């Protein structure tokens, strides 16, 4: 028994961005599995400015058993000292708004790509005990999802829709052939699909993934990039208008405003519960496989944006229909949802939460959290000013 406790306490995970939405759930999951956990986070005001903080200045939801280091990963000295005693590294810290990345290009690239370069320099030059790495990538690296052409009997990885098509308000992906136009069928996206990142954020996430995989391999440290689909759950930054669609819609509904839906709202996404995401990271960290690769983490189910808006309104008991804007955001994709078979086959990981139950849990957390401030008009104004909404 004593031996088991000794063994477990030697596993010490450092989570960059561990005070954030996904990071804090991963803290809970790793503590539950017997890891020691250290969080390195600079507590970005855009994420934490409206959150409830404890007397020590950290979010109230962050488990007290986690050691905390307030610092910026852009500061290599902070990162070096944070690695003391660390055996497992999870890199989550990032600037995370797709739309915002298109109008804050230098900031995003500094905080995402440059920060990764600084961390990797430290890992390759200094002595440390890191034996396994997991890094958060994103479904955004795919650009458009995968499609099936019934006429050509093949799966396709089409580029983004043309401006000309979008100006006609013709939303679906099509393929020209034999004098006719075929509407393509969206199918689950597999990891092999060529990557076509369509925003600075997506390019930054591809950088995260490729830089960590390349250097991890060179250093002989097994490294896994998890391509997260749309995570939802408690502790989302509800007042941050640049985060996930579920949080933004909840914020609008609680303020008596209709969720704003781009295009016709029938675009399909994959919503995965944050606890499933945390379990995916923990599974990868605990694995003894010596693997370098990228894996989808989604629910494996698709759901339309309209349906999200209606489900949230029903659960919040608000009789408010979404406002379908018939406008589009430059660089937006039409459909993307995950094929989750690779992570199931490699790590025996399967998501466990269903969408209805997960959303109910999110709503029950929301009703106990501070009422969010609706800042979507600010983000819409910024996007319009940057000519990102048409
Ligand atoms: N939430 C999603 O749906 C989703 C989807 C795909 C990928 N991801 C990725 O997962 C990761 C975590 O996302 P999240 O939703 O929890 O975001 P979040 O904004 O809630 O958390 C990110 C945390 O990183 C911290 N941080 C940012 N820059 C930092 C820096 N330079 N130094 C130290 N700390 C810094 C922030 O203060 C914040 O606490 C990100 O890498 C994101 O790109 C998230």
Automatic annotation (TrEMBL):
Residues 13-147, 187-298 form the NAD-dependent epimerase/dehydratase domain. InterPro entries: Epimerase_deHydtase, Lipid_A_modif_metabolic_enz, NAD(P)-bd_dom_sf. It comes from the Bacteria. It holds the Pfam family Epimerase. Residues 172-191 are annotated as: Disordered. This is Nucleoside-diphosphate-sugar epimerase. It comes from Reyranella soli.
